[in-house]
Structure formats: C-alpha cells, structure tokens
Description:
alpha/beta; 4-stranded mixed β-sheet; 8 helices; 11 strands; globular
Amino acid sequence: MAEDGTYPPLDVPKPLAEGAWVVDGGPQRVLGLALPTRMTVLRLADGGLWLHSPTRHTPALEAALAPLGPVRHFVAPNTAHWVHASPWQKAFPDAKLWAAPGVADRARGQGVHLRDAGTLGDAAPPDWDGQIEQAVFSGPGFVEVAFHHRASRTLVLTDTVQAMRSGDLPLATRLFSRVVGSAAPEGATPAHARLVLNRRRSANRAAAERLLALAPERVVFAHGDFYTYDGAARLRRALEWLLKD
C-alpha cells in the first residue's frame, strides 16, 4: 500500500480468480477526502468483460484489458461510483452501461449524460442472468447493488463494507475513516451507511442473508483491503450489526 492510501500498481488488471480481476485506482477526492478506489472486472460466459465501478480510463489500461476479452458492460453500482463511466463509454460506444437507481439523474444534474441500458435491481438482466446474482441495499438517499459471480465465487460490494488501513491514508481521510469506522481491519459498515440502512433494516438484512447463502469465497470492496479467502464467514462478522435481531 502506498503512502497516499492506494494499492499499487495502479490502473492495471490484477488476477483475483479464474475470470476475475481487480484494478486499483485513485486516490479520488470526495468532499476533500482522498479515497483509494477499485474496479472489479469479471469475464462472462460469452467471453465479454463486465466492469464494476469503473476507475479512471487510461489508454494503457484499455490495452491491458484487451487480451482478457472485449469490454461489453459497465456497472455503476451506486450514486457515488459513476464518475468515470463517461470516458469508458466514449472508448467503448457499443458497451452497455447498467446503473443503480438514481445514478442517471444524479449524473444529469452534474451535466453528464450517461447512456444507460437499464436500471439495476434485485433481478439480473438477461445479459448475465444465471452467472451473476444481485441484491439491493437501500436507505434514504442511499442505494447499492451487490453482485455475486457464480463461476469465481466472488461477491462484489462498493461502500456497504470498507476496510481502509488508516495508518497509510492522508491525514484528513485517516481521521474520517477512524471516526466513521471504515478503517476496521476486518471490514465494517461506515456509521453514516449504518444509519440509513437501519431505516430499511428488514429488507437489507434479507439482502445480506441472500448473498451470504451463496457462500462467496472472495469479497471485494471498492475502498481498502478485501477478502481473498473465507469470504462468507468474514463478511458475516462485518455485517453482524445488521444480521442480529
């Protein structure tokens, strides 16, 4: 991990499992905080690539993805993880963008037009039905679509759980992560996310249980470390606050 909180090498696909890679990017500034970011790349049965939470586009990264398969899908899983989607759409105009509820409207409000193929929910679109399962976490002003890639037993989350190493973060981000709990070594739900997810606790608990029942071996987060083994058990501990009665 670098002194700026990122996970070099940056902007290159790093193997995670058969048909699965992560691309670390950032740091990305949000409300004055510098956050490490991560894209997850999955290969579907037709050989096409599925890019979750796209990080910054670079020609070198585009070239590095080419041998892995053609880019066919971009996924904006929540209202915060869409800012790099437009450059990727320009680079791959035939690829489809799938967005969580509210993403297209939020982008439009910031002067960015995203050509979305559809709004994501609990049911997978036909493009990856049977290969990737989905579940929605939501609360007032918050929505995140989680995905489980059956072939690699990889669960992909965004902000619902974070595991940033606070000692390696810039000062402001370090302090913030400690206050909200996103610096938990084994991963935790930040306090502000807990607050809104608790407003729809029953539905969110059901979503968590459905994902855990899929027994993921790996669980990838957009910010910080992630689980490369024993994913279901470790995620259950991180989400104990939501799962308990």
